[in-house]
Specification:
Strand content: 35-45%
Largest sheet: 5 strands, antiparallel
CATH topology of the largest domain: OB fold (Dihydrolipoamide Acetyltransferase, E2P)
Number of strands: 16
Oligomer: single chain
Radius of gyration: 22 Å
Number of domains: 2
Shape: elongated
Helix content: under 10%
Order of helices and strands: EEEEEEEEEEEHHEEEHEE
CATH class of the largest domain: Mainly Beta
CATH architecture of the largest domain: Beta Barrel
Distance between the termini: 21 Å
Structural class: mainly beta
Number of helices: 3
CATH superfamily of the largest domain: Nucleic acid-binding proteins
Length: 223
C-alpha cells in the first residue's frame, strides 16, 4: 500500500508492477474508491447496469471527496479530478456516485502508507535491535552490490539475495537490504555506489557476528 505524500492520508493507492513502458513510472489504483459528484439527478440503487458501470468522463475539474455532502458542511476533499479524466462508476448514493480511477505517478513521489514509518538512524536500530524490530524506515543509501547470502550470514537465509549498501545519509554504515523477488529486476540494474531511496522494515538491528543491520526492502527508487 502506498500514499501520495502531498495528499490527505485518506487517499491511498496500491502500486501495480505491470509497468509496460519501463522506467520509474508506476500504475496506481485508488483502493478506497472515493465518491464524487456528476451532473444530473441520480437515484439510489443497489446495483448498476452495464451502461451505468461503463467508463465516465469528467466534464470539468471536480474535487474528490471521502463521502457525499449530506448537509450544509462539505466533506473533506482528498484530491482533484481533472476535466477529461476517465473513471469507473461503481456505486450510487442519491445524487453522488462512487468511482474508481487509475493513473501513473513517479515512484519517487510515493511513500509506503504505514503508521510505523519512523525517522530512525542506523545507530538507533543497532542500539535497540529489539525495540526497532519491525519498524519501517525510509533511508537514502548507496547500493554497493547485489549479494547472495551464505550460511555464515546470521539473520539471512542461505541463498537469500540482498543489497550490500552504505548509509543512511552521512552515517555510511554497512547495511544489508534483503530484496524480494518483485524488486530483483530493479536491484540488478543498480550501478555500484548508486544513490537510492529505500523504504525497508527492520528485521534485525544488530546481526551477528559484525552487528550489521538487516532490513527487508519494501521499495527502491533512484535518487
Amino acid at each position: 500500500m502506498y500514499v501520495l505524500p502531498n495528499l490527505e492520508p485518506e487517499l491511498r493507492y496500491r502500486l501495480s508492477d505491470n509497468n509496460q513502458n519501463g522506467g520509474t513510472g508506476y500504475r496506481i489504483k485508488n483502493t478506497t474508491m472515493h465518491k464524487l459528484f456528476f451532473a444530473g439527478v441520480l437515484v439510489s440503487v443497489t446495483s448498476l447496469s452495464a451502461q451505468e458501470s461503463s467508463p465516465h468522463v469528467a466534464t470539468k475539474s471536480i474535487p474528490i471527496r471521502n463521502a457525499p455532502i449530506t448537509g450544509t458542511t462539505p466533506t473533506p476533499a482528498v484530491g482533484q479530478l481533472a476535466k477529461g479524466a476517465t473513471v469507473e462508476v461503481i456505486g450510487r448514493d442519491r445524487e453522488w456516485v462512487r468511482v474508481r480511477l487509475e493513473g501513473w505517478v513517479l515512484e519517487s513521489d510515493l511513500t509506503v502508507a504505514d503508521s510505523t514509518l519512523r525517522p530512525l538512524s542506523a545507530a538507533d536500530v543497532r542500539s535497540d535491535p529489539a525495540g526497532t524490530q519491525g519498524k519501517l524506515v525510509q533511508w537514502e543509501v548507496e547500493a554497493i552490490s547485489l549479494q547472495t547470502a551464505d550460511a555464515l550470514r546470521t539473520g539471512l537465509e542461505p541463498g537469500e539475495q540482498y543489497l550490500l549498501a552504505l548509509g543512511p545519509g552521512a552515517e555510511k554504515t554497512l547495511v544489508y537490504l534483503t530484496v524480494p523477488e518483485s524488486l530483483l529486476p530493479t536491484a540488478r540494474t543498480l550501478r555500484p555506489l548508486a544513490p537510492i531511496i529505500v523504504t525497508a522494515r527492520v528485521r534485525n538491528g544488530r546481526s551477528e557476528p559484525a552487528g550489521v543491520p538487516i532490513l527487508d526492502l519494501q521499495t527502491i527508487s533512484r535518487r
